[in-house]
């Protein structure tokens, strides 16, 4: 199944299971917090949302006065984005492009002050070609906001659940038919690849350091705000950020 067909089929489930849940709210909350200083500056930014799906974060950026190019391969994802953009009166600030990220970056000539690539890296076979394509579209001192599925968390979660064979197998990808990513990433490898591309990592934070490990009874006992406070307290500290379900890093392109 092609990537486009896969996400076309999952478009409705994606919105329901990713963003309309506490884990999705945690993810969106921290992405907005981490990028607040960049997005609330006075100047208008040109932003590329690479693999932005239904445009939840693109609309957040557009609502703050920025211009966003949302590139995604799924037609159904972009149809949903277009409808939601219009409902919120943001269609003039968000340009929708249906293409693969690498192909778009190869043909587009614009330089972006900020590129968003959230929960995309884990769906491609090789991470380096995608990172290279993205960094080529960054202007000098431009920022890359990269969030990816953390391999360490998959090992730990399987061990805690007693899935020892899977934890030892080094095979952590989903079967390609659902929302479980196919290629969890090792943080040190991603850091090395970015540095080799002339990127300087400015911030590195965990997204859901604890939530995915909590038993259902604990999730139901505590208020969402209490869980959020716990996540906030430890997400920038080692070893907790290395256990997070996702790693969010912000990297700057070195002046050339």
TrEMBL record:
Enzyme Commission number(s) from the entry: 2.1.1.-
BP term (GO), one: methylation
SUPFAM superfamilies per UniProt: S-adenosyl-L-methionine-dependent methyltransferases
Keywords carried by this UniProt record: Methyltransferase, S-adenosyl-L-methionine, Transferase, tRNA processing
Entry binding sites for S-adenosyl-L-methionine: 27, 51-52, 72, 118
CDD domains listed in its UniProt record: AdoMet_MTases
Root EC class: transferase
The Methyltransferase domain, residue ranges: 47-138
InterPro entries in the record: Cmo5U_methylTrfase, Methyltransf_25, SAM-dependent_MTases_sf
Catalytic activity, reaction form: 5-carboxymethoxyuridine(34) in tRNA + S-adenosyl-L-methionine = 5-methoxycarbonylmethoxyuridine(34) in tRNA + S-adenosyl-L-homocysteine
Pfam families the UniProt entry points to: Methyltransf_25
Superkingdom of origin: Bacteria
Family label: Belongs to the class I-like SAM-binding methyltransferase superfamily. CmoM family.
Known function: Catalyzes the methylation of 5-carboxymethoxyuridine (cmo5U) to form 5-methoxycarbonylmethoxyuridine (mcmo5U) at position 34 in tRNAs.
Designated name of the protein: tRNA 5-carboxymethoxyuridine methyltransferase
Organism: Motiliproteus coralliicola
Gene name linked to the record: cmoM
